[in-house]
Amino acid sequence: MDFIDALKQNDLEAVRRCPKSDLHNHFVLGGSRQYLLQHTGKDIQPIKKPLHSMDEMHAWNHQNMGDTFESAEGRRMLIRAAFVQAKEDGVTILEIGEDVWGLGEFFHGNIEELVDAFETAHLEIAPEIELRLQIGMSRHCDIAYLEDCLSHFWGCKAFYSIDLYGDELAQPIENFRSIYRRAKAEGFRLKAHVGEWGTAYDVRRAVECLELDEVQHGIAAAEDPSVIRFLVDNHIRLNITPSSNYLLGRVEDLKTHPIARLYRSGVDVTINSDDVLIFDSDVSKEYLRLYQCGCLDAQELDDIRLNGLKSI
What are phi and psi of 255, to 5 degrees? Predict the structure, then answer.
């Protein structure tokens, strides 16, 4: 059964058998629920209704994750769980990585040890998946601190991309310009979380300031036709996570999710998971939910799926 037929027949398992990409996945909350239950006894339950604040998300994280994984072995378990989840979901391109602070916290400041943790899990669990290893940074961190952490990553050819996440209002996007200039010189694909909580202008400003190739979320761009045109003209990809947007209260419902307007306007969009453990949002479910609610039709969703599998 092909992907379009699988959607039309509401067959989740058939959807899972079709190749997909997951280009917006935070592996710490992106792993297999069943795998973690088997190995820790923790039954991690997703949220069922939209949250009212990020404080509620932090409370969920404290209750469900706690300090169980705050060790080197715990971190490796989360990495393995991410590959198990991706394999079960039919993901064939997976972009995940470690936050810069995790290098010292879990890998003794040894970049080879960090890379080996991901590559070993990759080869043991899902060698057929194309792994794109990412460097992550938080907007909350001081720039000098980030630059110090990144000094261990520069020159490491194992990494594919760099991403910036956290509170969009934590500090001006301009503060990160020097880091992104260096990342561009290093040959990384440039990404940042923007337009999840901010405005369409914030999306354009971030792309222009940091010379981004891709935006994680970026859904606020749908509010401004000029920004939509800017994204189309500059071939900027938006890696969108629909259930996350809904359950964090960023959109009213999935039926009216702005991904439809963005896609139909010619923006390069992909569909991704974000945090599977909290949002119950594996990529196959995301496609099926968008089809079932009438946001996008089966042909449109297949086009988006195939787009995510293209080499860039």
Answer: -60, -35
